[in-house]
Amino acid sequence: MSKVKIGVVHTFLYSVEDLKGLFKKYLPEVEMVNIIDDSLLEEALANKGITSGIVKRMTGYYKNLEEIGCVAALNQCSSVGEAADLAVQELKIPMFKVDGPMAEKAVELGSKIAVIATAISTVEPSSNLVERKAKEKGKKVTVDRCFVDGAYDYLLKTGDKQKHNEMVIAKIKEAAKDHDVIVLAQGSMYHLIPQLSDVKVPVLTSLETGVQQLRGLIEGLD
Q1: Architecture of 100-205 per CATH?
Q2: pTM of the predicted model as reported, rounded to 2 decimal places
Q3: What DSSP assignment string belongs to 1-67?
């Protein structure tokens, strides 16, 4: 019996293996189909947001996934989440955002929320998503945008993961002093969780809950 297919559009190479592991753990009956275009993220970073070219390419990728039989698509990258919102208007299959459940959980847990981002292109989309989830729930929240300037350069340009991690962890601990909950806006920070056991407020990441949300879809297909 062939597996159900779910497609994932990635803008970041590091996320592929992490998501493969989570699909295997939580959705073993699903075949994960990957499209990787790291130029999307480069373009978003250069323009500090999405462009018409990003929207056009992502729409094409999602249509490709639909054409090969995927029952749903998952958007992996927060930086292009708003492009995914536009692309889905052209699709017949549902599109899920990997950071959607994280944003909902943040709103449930607190009213003063810090969004930690290392990519300038992620700051507004991730913060806007949290604010939108709060509005949907009728809850008043304050969302503080916490940009870790320079950390992404260490990760992408020099490969110095330790320096990237040190900078992000310092920002998280600083934000934890006066916020109810911390949101790690990018999947690239997923591996930091074991180093944050001394942080006294909830610290949320997107990858695990982003995959788990697909369980309801799969069960609905039975």
Answers
A1: 3-Layer(aba) Sandwich (3.40)
A2: 0.91
A3: -PPEEEEEEES-TTHHHHHHHHHHHH-TTEEEEEEE-HHHHHHHHHHTS--HHHHHHHHHHHHHHHH
> How many CB atoms are closer than 10 A to CB 48?
12
pLDDT in tens, 122-161: 999 999 999 999 999 999 999 999 999 988 888 777 878 8
Tell me what pLDDT residue 14 has. 78
- Write the CA distances from 193 to 138, 184, 202, integer angstroms: 30, 10, 10
Equal fold, 4-98+209-221 vs 100-205 = yes
Element (DSSP H or E) covering residue 95 = strand 95-97
Instruction: For residues 76 and 74, give the distance between their C-alpha atoms in angstroms, rounded to a whole number.
Output: 6
Which pLDDT value is given to residue 104?
96
Q: Are 104 and 133 in contact (CB under 8 A)?
A: yes
Is the alpha carbon torsion for 173, 210, 119, 189 positive or negative? positive
**62 and 91 Cβ atoms separated by less than 8 Å:** yes
pLDDT tens sequence across 42-68: 999 899 889 999 999 999 999 999 999
Q: Which CATH architecture has domain 4-98+209-221?
A: 3-Layer(aba) Sandwich (3.40)
